[in-house]
Structures are given as structure tokens and as C-alpha cells.
Specification:
Layout (H helix, E strand, L loop, with lengths): L5 H35 L1 H4 E9 L3 E8 L5 E8 L6 H21 L8 E7 L2 E7 L3 E3 L12 H20 L2 E2 L8 E4 L5 E3 L6 E2 L21 H4 L5 H17 L8 E2 L4 E2 L9 H11 L10 H73 L1
Antiparallel strand pairs: 1-2, 2-3, 3-5, 4-5, 6-8, 7-10, 8-9, 11-12
Helix pairs in contact: 4-6, 4-8, 6-7, 7-8
This protein binds adenosine-5'-diphosphate and magnesium ion (MG).
Length: about 375
Amino acid sequence: MNLLGVSDILYISYFLAIVFVLNTQYTRILQFYFQGLIQQNPFFRYQVIKKLGQGGFGITYLAEDRENNDNLVVIKKFFPQQCEPYIKEIGLRLFRNEIKAQKNLGHFPKIPTFLDSYENCDGFFLVQEFIDGHTLDQEISLGVQLDQNYVSQLIFELLEILVFIHEKNIVHRDIKPSNIMRRKIDQKLVLIDFGAIKIIDMTLKTGIVSEAIGTSGYMPIEQALGKPKFSSDIYSLGIVGIEALTGQRIYELSENSKVGKLEWEKYCNVTKEFSNFINKMTFSDYNLRYQTAYQALRDLKAINSNSKLIKLGNKLSKLIEYKLSFNKTISLLLIVILCSIILRQNIDITNILEKKIQIDKIQLFD
Ligand SMILES: Nc1ncnc2c1ncn2[C@@H]1O[C@H](COP(=O)(O)OP(=O)(O)O)[C@@H](O)[C@H]1O
Ligand SMILES: [Mg+2]
């Protein structure tokens, strides 16, 4: 039997020392590292159910929150489609702005609540409240003309949201049907997708030039030129309204270049007041447009109360007409009854007379 040499004993003690270190500090470091990774990666906490959409700069997922009763959430992952560094850079800036805006605005009931955000080597993530409902592109479709009441209500609700976000110096820049959701629970409209927002620095006097972000058709000229204004969102909302009223895509409508307005009125039936209102939202010259969502909202309220008054007036005149015609019928009926009584009496008289003549005749023959 060979006895252990000095070198063997040294090896064994090295080995034991390593095991000891691993068991103490190193494992703790490792544990800490992996825990950190787990905490940084949303997909350890959230179980993805399906993909909801994919835009130029990101993917949107529907997921379950394993740490909160499997509640549904929406996760947006920054995922640029193009690899040019400067485009990626713009995308990342927009994504960070989206997170900032969502944190800042998310307590408003008609904007998804901000839940969490992550930035790590796996990417950038935004977690927000899931809105159970559908997007408005399911309601506003080609060939379907929606009425003035519907569009007026739509614009009213969205203007209320715009008043709120513009107060925070944020221009949404991407108002369109697929970024507006109708919530199932109360049928109210919710504005989503703050991925294109522009934070306007009110201290800067000169016009701020930024990238042309937005969706063509819904985006006004000044926004396409990189100078978005608060009235740019009002323009996009007006375009959504025109599409809903006419059932046509905005590209199909011609433009009166003299006045700088779209020719849309002939394709639908709205009051003059309402068409003037929509035109003031969508003039291509932003100086002619409503400058604030608040002004537009105030005018829309006035139009609605006017039309309520008109409706009330119409109802009243119908009632008066009905009463008049009711009176006419009653008097006609009375005349008929009177005539028939007179006629009956006449018949009776003639009967009596006839009988009398007969009696007279009999008496005469007698
Ligand atoms: N908070 C949300 N709740 C429910 N569905 C959402 C929510 N956010 C986005 N979606 C859905 O995912 C789609 C894409 O998300 P969106 O934020 O518009 O990103 P993008 O347009 O950049 O792909 C939306 O059209 C909508 O159907
Ligand atoms: Mg979108």
C-alpha cells in the first residue's frame, strides 16, 4: 500500500480550499449575479402569451405576470428593424421617451398605466397595463360611413386626452385608429403607443427640428418637416374623423390647394357647423387650425349643446304639429258625428212624414 506523498496532501488541501471558497463567497457572488440577471430580465417574471404587434422599432407582447396573480400585461421590447447606427440611436431615444412619457402620463385613466421598465444587455423593455378591448381600425373601415354623433363622441373623448398630454408638453405624433383602443369594460376610448412622442421644450423660442416621425396620411406637413406642434395631433385626429365619416382612406380624397383643405363634405351628411369644426382641425396651414386641444374641445361642446337645442326645438315643433293635427282630427270627428246626428234626425223626420202621409192616405180612402 502506497502512503500519500507530500505533493498529494498539498493537492488535496488545495482542492479542499477551493471547495471551501466556492461554498462561501464565490457561490454567493454567483448567486448574486444570476439573481441580478433574473431581476433584470422581464421574461423571468412575465410569461409571454402571444405577440400583439411589431413596428419599426419594437415588438409588443401580451404576457402574464407570474408574481401578481397571472394578471395580463403588455410588454414592449425595443427591437429596431434597421441596423444603421443612427436609426438605432433615434429608435432608442424614442423608446426611452416612451418609457418617460408612460411614467409621467400613465396615471390618467385613458392611458395605459406604466408598470415597469428594464434596460440590460438583453435589451430594453417597457411593461404596461393591458387594455382589454379592440383598436379603432376595427370600427373605422373602408366603405363604412359612420354618423356625426359617433364621430363627434370619438373626437370629444380624444380631445380630452390631448388636453391632458399637451399640458405635459407632449405631442403624441401618431394618432391613428390602430393607436386608439375601445375599452371593453366601459366602452371608453384609450390612447396607446407613445413610441413616437415628442417632448416640446417650451423654453426654446425657435422651432425645434426633429426627425419626421409619424404615419403618412395622418401626419401634417409641419410634422413631416420635423417641426411638430400641438396642433399636429389635432390634425391627425381630424383626419381620423374624416375617414370615419366618409368611409374613405385619406389618400382617396382630393385637396383644395387654394384653401389648403380636403374635399370630404360631399361624401357624407353632417351639419355645416360640424364640417366647419372638422375643417378647422385639418387645415394644412397650422396657423388656421385650432392651436390647442382645449379650444377645439370648447367649440365641440358648443356645437353639441346647439344641436341638442335644435333637437329639442324639433321635438317641440313635432309635438305642436302633432297637437294641431290632433285638434284637427277631433274637430273633423265632431263634424262627422254632428252631421250623422243631423242626418239621422232627418231620416227620422222623413220616416215620420212618410208614415203620416200613409195614415192620411188611409184615412182618405176610408
Ligand atoms: N396597453 C395595451 N393593451 C392592449 N393592447 C395593446 C396595448 N398596447 C398595444 N397593444 C396592441 O398592440 C398593438 C401594437 O402596439 P403599439 O404600442 O401600437 O406598437 P407599434 O405600433 O409600435 O407596433 C396595438 O395596435 C394594440 O393592438
Ligand atoms: Mg401603434
